[in-house]
Amino acid sequence: PWAEIKALKPRTTGQGGLVYYFVSNSEKGYLLPMRIVGFAKLVRIVEAKTGIDTTDVRPLSQPWMYLILFGCTILLLLVDAWTISNAIAISS
User: Which of 15, 23, 25, 65 shows the smallest number of beta carbons within 10 Å?
Assistant: First the structure.
């Protein structure tokens, strides 16, 4: 229940990222899921239900980062296809 959440605490990850944990009244920590669709909506719900200020809470990875990774993947696939087609052409 929302009433059990006392705070939202940031923690750095081993890779240098930042994650957040819900801290309950019994001092237990629960990880805030950060790689979900609708993260901004989740954060607004958390703020509305708990009264905790979430203005500094940002998702672990921004959506544009995934677009860049997708673009790099497509580029690598094209290079692979080109390399394979050239190898086949040279061998025949």
Answer: 15
- Torsion 52-55-61-63 (CA) sign: positive
- Give the pLDDT score at 39: 87
Which range of residues forms the domain containing residue 31?
Answer: 1-60
- H/E segment holding residue 63: helix 63-91
**Could you identify the residue written with the tokens 């009264």?**
51
In this structure, the answer to whether residues 55 and 70 fall within a common structural domain is no
With beta carbons less than 8 A apart as the criterion, state whether 19 and 9 touch: no
Q: Burial of 32 by CB count in 10 Å (0-12 exposed, 13-18 middle, 19+ buried)?
A: buried
User: Look-up: residue for tokens 């801290």?
Assistant: 23
Count: domains in the chain: 2
Contact (Cβ atoms closer than 8 angstroms) between residue 8 and residue 42: no
